[in-house]
Amino acid sequence: MSPLARDAGVARGLRTIEWLKAELLAAVGDLFRGMLRGADDLVLDSLAHIVLVAYLLARRLGYSYTRLDLKVADQVRRHLDAGHEVERWYGDLSALSRHFRDSRREARVGLAEQEGSSL
């Protein structure tokens, strides 16, 4: 690869990261507007966009999706262990931990079913 092509690739990568950062900020703004208006669709779309952009940004920064998943799970455990207020008041971290566990179980079952049907 020529130095010019390499430089162009680096510049494109940096522009992509900056664009994703702007997308993240815009999605947070959309979330706040949706909450202010009581617009459920906008709130959910914005939250989904924030999660999506976080995954894309992690990858552009050199982190795997799996590593991000593991870091999120680790933070859930740490906040549970620390007795985070949201857990004490609502049990949200326990619910999220169960959601992750059940999602992994469903993914394994689905994978096993796919493998079984291909035999």
TrEMBL record:
Pfam families: MazG-like
Entries under InterPro entries matching the protein: DCTPP
Gene Ontology molecular functions: nucleoside triphosphate diphosphatase activity
Entry superkingdom: Bacteria
Single GO biological process annotation from the record: nucleoside triphosphate catabolic process
Protein name: MazG-like family protein
Originating species: Caldinitratiruptor microaerophilus
